[in-house]
Amino acid sequence: MNGVKVHLVLCAVLAMGVSFCVAAEPQLLQLSGDTGVHDPVIIKEGDTYYVFATGGRRGRNCVPIHMSRNLRDWRRIGHVFAELPEWAPKEIPGTQGTWAPDISFFSGKYHLYYSVSTFGKNSSAIGLAVNETLDPNSPKYKWVDRGMVVRSTEGQDDWNAIDGNIVVEANGRVWLNWGSFWSGIKMRRIDPETGKLSAEDTTLYSLASRPRSGAHQTPPVTGAIEAPFIVRHGDYWYLFVSFDFCCRGPKSTYNVRVGRSRDVTGPYADKDGTPMMEGGATLVIEATSGAWRGAGHQAVFHEAGTDYLVFHAYDATTGRSHLQISTMVWEDGWPRVASLP
């Protein structure tokens, strides 16, 4: 999913042989079918696109899966877990489902990281399941749960272990970043063979945060930052995050923002140079009026020279969240996407 990105441009030749190039206008894809998702992440295997999302009621049918052949027509094809993994409710009492999955491919396997938690508390954990293929018709298709990767403990940690995202460097180093509210976005290095935390590098890196009222306010009502997603473009790493509040239907205020860094571990800063650890982040998309609200929990997908921003937004009439996909262009080193109607 992650890799060096390519500018999408339109070029023209003027009189006297002078040429110029301008960024193409980003386009919002028109989607159909089973688009009701929350916290989507996308990957492609063969000729099929797969979206994994938050879902599963009362611990059953966790991590729903949607598929498409063309990025536009979507069909739900099942789920990762028929029941919540046995370790999850033991480790995080009160959890009833899985949240915010992330899908990546490294070390010859697909790695699905998922969150277990309860609303308003940072007693949370990120688990891992692996599979050799995403094709449910393949004889090799089998999700194997590897258990807990990292957890946060209420009253002990000032961070929240949900919303995991994997990023793989060109040198093969693998990183897991995560975070929601509290002191913001964190990162740890991953052992690529196990998919678990590295014993070689035990540093907990801090990537982004927002000011809070009260140093240890629980649950926090300010400092709303979550859903990190890191990609490489040109000479920089870009950290996309969601600001403000999801899960409130048409009253949701989610919006997508971004900063960049020369190093994957930071420091990240926005277009104006404000560090993301001080609340800096450049706006990518928001939806405060019209047919949609609360655009957020984004993922970035790259294919054939084109970048896409994948996210959910809430129908202003029904309050339900739906999949959204926009092409993404780069201008002066910063991303731009289409607006929602």
How would you describe what is shown here?
By secondary structure, the protein is an all-beta fold. It has one helix spanning 87-91; strands at 9-13, 19-23, 32-33, 41-45, 48-52, 60-68, 73-83, 99-106, 109-116, 124-131, 144-152, 165-168, 174-178, 185-190, 205-208, 225-233, 236-243, 255-261, 282-286, 292-303, 306-315, 321-331, 334-337. The strands form 6 sheets. Strands 3-7-6-5-4 form a 5-stranded mixed beta sheet, with no helix packed on it. The protein has a 4-stranded antiparallel beta sheet with strand order 8-9-10-11. Strands 12-13-14-15 form a 4-stranded antiparallel beta sheet, with no helix packed on it. A hairpin with a 2-residue loop joins β20 (292-303) and β21 (306-315). It starts with 8 loop residues before the first strand and ends with a strand. The relative contact order is 0.15.
Biggest beta-sheet profile: 5 strands, mixed
Provide the β-strand percentage band: over 45%
Say which CATH homologous superfamily is assigned: Glycosyl hydrolase domain, family 43
Order of helices and strands: EEEEEEEHEEEEEEEEEEEEEEEE
- Domains, number: 1
- Shape call: globular
* Average pLDDT over all residues: 91
CATH topology: Tachylectin-2, Chain A
Per DSSP, the total helix count is 1
CATH architecture: 5 Propeller
Q: Briefly, what CATH class?
A: Mainly Beta
Radius of gyration: 19 Å
Which structural category fits the helices and strands?
mainly beta
Oligomer: single chain
